[in-house]
Amino acid sequence: LVYEQRARPQDRLKTEMEAAREEKDRLERAERHRQRRMEGLPSDSELDSDSDNDDSGKKGYKTKAKRRPVADDLGDDFAQGGDAEMENAEATGNLGLGLTGEESASDEESGSGDESGSGEDDDDESGEEEDDSEVDSDQGESVLADSSDEEEEKRKPAAATSLRKAAVAAAQRAPSSGHTEELPFTFAAPANYDAWIELVGSYSLEQQLTVVARLRALYHIRLSPQNKEKLSDLCVVLTQHLAVLAEQDPPVPAPIIDGLVKHIGELAAVDAERFGEHCRQAVIDCHRRVQQALRAEGEPGMRASDVALMRLFASVFSSSDRFHTVITPMLILISQYLSQHTFATLRDISCGLVLVGIVHETQRLSRRLVPEALNFLLATLAATACHSADAADWDGQYPLSRRQRESYRLLQIGVAEKCKSKKALPMRWAWLLSPASDSPSQRAAPSVVVTADVKYGILRACLQLSRRFVDSYFQLPAFIECFEPLQKLLAKISERLPKFRLQHAPAEVVDLLATTRTYLDEQLDQARAARVPLKLQYHKPLAIGSFAPKFESGYNLDVHYDPDRSRNEITKLRRQVNKERRGAVRELRRDAQFVAGERLKEQREKDKSYADKMKKAWSVLEADQSDMKKMDKARIKERKAKI
Q: Can you tell me the distance from the alpha carbon of 620 to that of 90, in angstroms, rounded to the nearest whole number?
């Protein structure tokens, strides 16, 4: 089918490299057309402008010279005149003196930005298209040359004062209705967070996501080997930018955070080793701050940015591994924070609840027990109904000091407190944000007033997390011991809610409390029914030995009376083997005797034939000897006769 025309695809699927190259060419072409439009040159479509450039380079046509602007281009205030006036007009953006000083200043800034971002003139555009790839490669080499010098700078915290202020300004910027500045299609790859702020400092959050998408298309890993380092730098920069956005007040919209997290998750696979080392270093820095906060009272131990990064790590990395270079230290940090930190503000409690949710997400598949998360949930639930001054009221497996019990006082639901809304207030990211002031006196003060709505929202979140942990740990052998305190605590809350005027509580919280309590009771009953007390290993009962003699009336020596059949079979087989062995030995001996007799016969025949030959030889020799003696005697007689 190689030469069959009908077997060839009419429109085959493009490879990943071809699709990336096409997207990059499209963005570069769109950027060239945008620059032409800013310069006032005609750029109706991609095909027309590209065909003009190709024709001017191939057929030798002269490109159009830069025309003099006319009065119809920009309106009544267009400046027209000689060369000197043209220079002044270009310096002022081709606008006359009819604008006010403020507008002209803004136009000068926009004009200078456009001129700095634009390319060459129309006469050199055909050469520019040919040198695009060379310019990209030169930029990549320059970034690689500077990466070694900036390696130490990348390890600095992303929350520096100047960068944080610039990021806050960029995050709070919203696109205005009269915003006419067009977003470029090509950007330089940022090597660090400073370059990123310079790149997107003037764009809104939605435009920043567009910038990230275009950067990924321009520096696709299939296009050049140097793009791997650029995308790795971009992934680290976006992680730092996510930490900065998580600290914004008011909070950044959820679609923006989701879009940023999606880009980070896809870029993390480009250089997993470097991204993992950066995340591990972030966990180490957070652990250092938590330890300092434990030694110094009143210090914020966990920031909203730390919680956001941990949520990112739990979604990017494999959390079901037994040991992981990022997840394992993160879980140790979370456990230490939940067990040792004093939760004195709404921000601390909200951070703790989010961290408990992260623990459940990481242990959802492996189902390893994290007792610190359960103890925090029990303590937070008890704070809504128990009195902080009464230590006996806080009975259970969640030991708390007096100072810790007093810190939970802000969650206690009072008798006269009434929820304003009919539905429970869901947890908000604003509860995790730090106060606006950094002074020690205001640092411990919550940024959100803890009203009845907030308290019932915390209670609702605790009940939901408790239900999730019950589903996760149901198969544990120690399920009864872990969740019996929760059963008692839910019963206590159910008993005391009527004292707090049940009609003041949202119906959703009341229903959730009832369903959670019923579900936990059912699970505990099933666990108790399935639990079997420990007992010794089962063995087959042994028969009592009988010592009464057994007599055989017809006893015979040739018969075996062993009651064990297997032993009888073994004995029979042994005798049969011995019999066969003796028969084989006899046969071998007979064969040996026969072989020896035959060999003896052959030897005797050989000896007899040899003796016969020797006799014949001796007889011949004796005859010759007798003849020779007779001749000698005859010769002697002849001599004597002559004498």
A: 148
The neighbour count for residue 527, using CB atoms within 10 Å, is 19
As a dihedral over the C-alpha atoms of residue 162, residue 163, residue 165, residue 171, rounded to 10 degrees, the angle is 170
Instruction: Determine the 3-state secondary structure of 409 from DSSP.
Output: helix
Q: Transcribe 449-507 into DSSP letters.
A: ---HHHHHHHHHHHHHHHHHHHHHSTTSTTHHHHHHHHHHHHHHHHHHTGGG-GGGS-H
Which pair of tokens denotes residue 57?
């380079």
Confidence (pTM): 0.61
Across 150-164, 297-311, 504-518, 588-602, least confident range: 150-164
- For residue 394, report the phi and psi dihedrals to the nearest 5 degrees: -100, 45
Q: Per residue in 119-157, pLDDT tens?
A: 333 434 434 443 443 434 344 333 333 433 444 444 444
Identify the CA nearest to 386 among candidates 298, 500, 521, 480: 500
Q: What is the dihedral of CA 577, 579, 580, 586, to 10 degrees?
A: 140
* Residue 349, helix vs strand vs coil: helix
* CB within 8 Å of 406: residues ≥ 6 apart: 388
Tell me how far apart the alpha carbons of residues 66 and 86 are, in angstroms, rounded to a whole number. 12
Distance of CA 508 to the CA centre of its chain: 36
pLDDT tens across 330-379, in order? 999 999 999 888 888 888 889 999 999 999 999 988 899 999 999 999 88
Instruction: Report helix, strand or coil for 433.
Output: coil
d(CA 239, CA 373) in angstroms, rounded, equals 26
Q: In 3D, which of 48, 61, 57, 38 has the Cα closest to residue 120?
A: 38
Helices (H) and strands (E) in the chain, counts: 23, 0
DSSP collapsed to 3 states, 585-622 = HHHHHHHHHHHHHHHHHHHHHHHHHHHHHHHHHHHHHH
Looking at residue 508, its pLDDT comes to 84
